Structure formats: C-alpha cells, structure tokens
Amino acid sequence: MKKRAYQDGCAVAHALDIIGDRWAMPIMRELMLGPKRFTDLRASLPGISANVLTQRLEGLEAASILIRRRLPPPAASQIYELTDWGRESEILFQVLGRWASRSPTMQPGQPMSHVSVVLSLRTMIDRSRIGDMDATIGMRFGEEEFRAILKDGDFTIGRGEAESADVLFSGDQNALVAVIYGGLPFGEAAGALTVAGDRELAERFIRLFPLPPKAPSTVTPETTAS
Amino acid sequence: MKKRAYQDGCAVAHALDIIGDRWAMPIMRELMLGPKRFTDLRASLPGISANVLTQRLEGLEAASILIRRRLPPPAASQIYELTDWGRESEILFQVLGRWASRSPTMQPGQPMSHVSVVLSLRTMIDRSRIGDMDATIGMRFGEEEFRAILKDGDFTIGRGEAESADVLFSGDQNALVAVIYGGLPFGEAAGALTVAGDRELAERFIRLFPLPPKAPSTVTPETTAS
DNA sequence: CTGTATCCGTGTTGATACTG
DNA sequence: CAGTATCAACACGGATACAG
After folding, report:
1. Residues 6+ apart with CB under 8 A from A226
2. A51 CB less than 7 Å from any atom of strand D
C-alpha cells in the first residue's frame, strides 16, 4: 500500500509507518480532547494545507486511529473522532512531551493550540503537590471552554463548562503558558489573560506544573567565523 | 535553521522537529544498546541511504541526542553514541512499541534487527511471570552477543557475553521472534535457531513475553468490486 | 575500510486557487 | 464547509565518485 514503509518487523517501525508522517501526530493531538471538524483542525494547526490534512485523515482512518462521522441533521457536517485505540495513544504524547521538555534546543514562547495547553497540564502536573486541594478551575480560550478538577490528590481536565469554577482563566492560552511555565507574574500577563475568582487558588494552581531540568547541550557553540 | 519546522510551542511538536524525520528514530533505536559505527548503522537499517544517514546523524548531534567520537588509535574509526538524554528516550520506544503492538494493521513476520529484538524483550516482558526464576540467557545473533538476567523478579538485558549463560539461543533473531511472539515451536525453528543448555528453562523463558490484545479494526473491509 | 559529497529520478509536501 | 486540482519546492533513495 504505502510506498515508503520501513520494511521492519519492529513495532516501533510500524508505529512510524502509521503515525510517523508529518502532521499525523499533531492531528491526533488536536482530537485528543474530543472530535473536531475539518475546518477546526485546519484552524488549530497553522501551516497545514488542506490536501495534506485530507491525506493524513485518510491514513489515520485506514489505520483505525480515527473515524469520520457525519453528524445527524440538522448539523450536517462531518467530524473526525479518535477510536478507543487512538485515544490510548495519549500516553505517547505524554512521554514524548515530557522527554522533549528537557531538550536543550527547545525555544520557549512559540504559540500553542488550546488542546496543547490542556494536554501539557495533564502531562506536567505534579500530583504530589496537590495535597488536599479541592477545587475546580475553568479556562476559556476563544470559543472553547475547559474545566479542571483537583480532588483527592488527583487532577483531571477536559472540555467542560468553565463559568462556575472557583477560578476562571480567560483570554490567550499562550499567556497562561507564560505564567505557568515561564514564571511570568499575573500582573504582566494582564491584558492577555484575566483571572476571575479565588486569586490565591489561582496562584497555588499555577505552581503545580514544574518543568524538569534541561538536559545539557553537547554541542560546542561553534565559534562563528565570518 | 530547519526549513520545515512546526512553529508550535508544544513540546510534542518540538520533539517531532528533532526526531520526527524519517529514519531518525530507527537510528536512535540502533544506538540504544551502545555505540555503533556508520557502517554498522547502515547495515542494521536496510533501506537507508548513506546521505540520509549522514544528514540524520548531523541533526541528532545538533540536538544533543548523540555525539560523534573518534576512537583512540589504533582503531581510527568514528562511533556514534547516545548522550544521557538520548538514552532517556528509550521510554519513547517502549511506549510506542507497546501501543503499536495492538495495531490492527500490523503485519507480523517482517525481519527485525538484533537491537529491535532485544529492545522488544525489554518492552514486552511481563515481570509478574518471572516469579522466582534466577537464570541467565545468552543470545548470539551473527557477530553480536547479548545477555539477559532474570533475578529477584526483575529482567535486564543488554550487550554481553552469551556463552556462559544457562540457555544459549543462537542463529537468526527472526526465528527467535517467531518462537516468542508467534508461538512457533522450537522444533519448527530448528535450522534457523539452535538452543543450547537448559531446554526447560528456554521453554519457560519464551513465555514471559505475552502480546497484548489487538485493537479492533474500524475500517470496513471494502467489498472489492472489479 | 570509513565515511562524505554530488548528481539525479521520483515521490511527498506545501501554497494557491478552485469546486461541490 | 469540505474538500480537490494544480504546480513548485523539497526530501528521499540509489548510484557514483571522492577523501582520510
């Protein structure tokens, strides 16, 4: 079928055959919190072109990672939704993200999608810091709302109603990232991010997501001769 | 630097920028059990071309995943060796391999490299089945020797002297795979695989690596009309 | 023997425009 | 909204030639 396949019995090579193509994993990531339409996917993946998105969706469907469903009328649109097995791939994103967060060449500050931010919180939460916290945190990024629950030492987050939470973050998800991972004070994020509700809880919340130490760079910084 | 980079702050996207290129992960896999030379890598990655291997090695070196070392004379050859952080990526291969082993589209029977086989054992071992086993297992595939140790409910395997083990498998690594994962009886693998030493231990050993159940295919098998 | 560099045919990717 | 068509740029794989 596929022209360029590793002809290798290794399961890792098979994984790369089905999800190793450019954009395949970012597409899966965007579907991890629930189904999306073609246009939603395109909007949350800046840089992808329509034909590549079509091809990847076909490939991922053929691999049983997602299914295409036509919503019942009146909403006559199609949606793409992960299968159970596709959803099980979340562990890949967690492990990959945790490993890459130590990369010495990673440059911070680039924009992230709504889903990326939420998944990164799922990945980087340090459950040992939750203690006896018992709270709900809402987030509103553009049209999308997410809801996090801290309870019994555990942390869950997904799409959900944000308004009634104990704290509500709203605005630009990148500003929240700058606060949580970049140590930016809320004050300096004002304008891009507003915090409503229990301010002290918000301050505690953002300290639940420590970054692991960077791995050392093994590259000599190349004395740039003209 | 890189022409085609996801411009995405998500750590997963950064990971894909540095290890998402074709052949990058298979190269890392081949170095996971210790350093190799350019020619060794090429031989264990059928299908890769010299220039692509050179490019990937450069990229992985720039990302601090591996370093290039010149062996001291008399062996004047270079070797490629994972950095500490590069070695920490083994978890990626384990998670990826375990997930992909459930793929409904994976076809068994394709050849695997020596390293792939050893890493797959590390990945698929079911420690709960080890019980009080206390033994060493040797494997000799071509020029390479590996040694596994079962002790105190744990399993370790890596490059190492094989001869003195309680059981010695030698011959074609693919035949061992067919026995362990394919359920092929030793008898039918004879010729491709020889087993020396404690035969009963060998039989117990190969049952320590159960495969997880396949995920269901969600693709309708397309009634092939002429 | 161990790599590296260059050329070339081919397939994949990506941007734009366009259609149901 | 959900893709398809077209085309240019690039990456890949193979072969070959070159350098230490």
Report:
1. none
2. yes
Give the gyration radius of chain B's Cα atoms: 20
Percent of chain B scored above 70 by pLDDT?
Answer: 94
Q: What is the dihedral of CA A39, A44, A49, A50, to 10 degrees?
A: -20
Sign of the dihedral through C-alpha A73, A75, A79, A84: negative
| Least reliable range by pLDDT among A14-18, A67-71, A93-97, A170-174 | A67-71
Mutate to test the interface with B, among A66, A96, A211 (most CBs of B within 10 A): A96
Q: Which residues numbered 172-211 in B keep a CB inside 8 Å of some CB on A?
A: 174, 177
Nearest chain B residue to A95, by CA: B92
- As a whole number of Å, the CA-based R_g of chain A is 20
The CATH class that applies to domain A11-88 reads: mainly alpha
CATH classification code of B103-208: 3.30.1050.10
Question: What are the start and end residues of each CATH 3.30.1050.10 domain in chain A?
Answer: 103-208
* pLDDT at residue B3 greater than cutoff 50: yes
Q: In the predicted model, what is the mean pLDDT of chain B?
A: 93
Which pLDDT score, from 0 to 100, does residue B78 have? Answer: 86
Query: How would you write chain B as a 3-class SS string?
Result: CCCCCCCCCCHHHHHHHHHCCCCHHHHHHHHCCCCECHHHHHHHCCCCCHHHHHHHHHHHHHCCCEEEEECCCCCCCEEEEECHHHHHCHHHHHHHHHHHCCCCCCCCCCCCCHHHHHHHHHHHCCHHHCCCCCEEEEEEECCEEEEEEEECCEEEEEECCCCCCCEEEEECHHHHHHHHCCCCCHHHHCCCEEEEECHHHHHHHHHHCCCCCCCCCCCCCCCCCC
Contact A22 B4 (CB under 8 A): yes
Closest CA to B34 of B106, B119, B96: B119
Q: Report residues 163-222 of B contacting strand D, contact meaning Cβ closer than 7 Å.
A: none
Of all protein residues, which has its CA closest to the C1' atom of C3? B38
Domain with CATH 1.10.10.10 in chain A: 11-88
Place of tokens 């950095």: B83
The verdict on pTM exceeding 0.85 is yes
Q: Is A7 on the interface with B (CB under 8 A)?
A: yes
- Pairing state between β A193-197 and B66-70: unpaired
User: Are residues B176 and B191 in contact, defined by beta-carbon separation less than 8 angstroms?
Assistant: no
| Percent helix, strand and coil across chain A, each to the nearest 5 | 40, 20, 40
B23 C-beta less than 7 Å away from strand C: no
**What is the average pLDDT across B154-160?**
98
Whether A56 and A2 have beta carbons less than 8 Å apart is answered as no
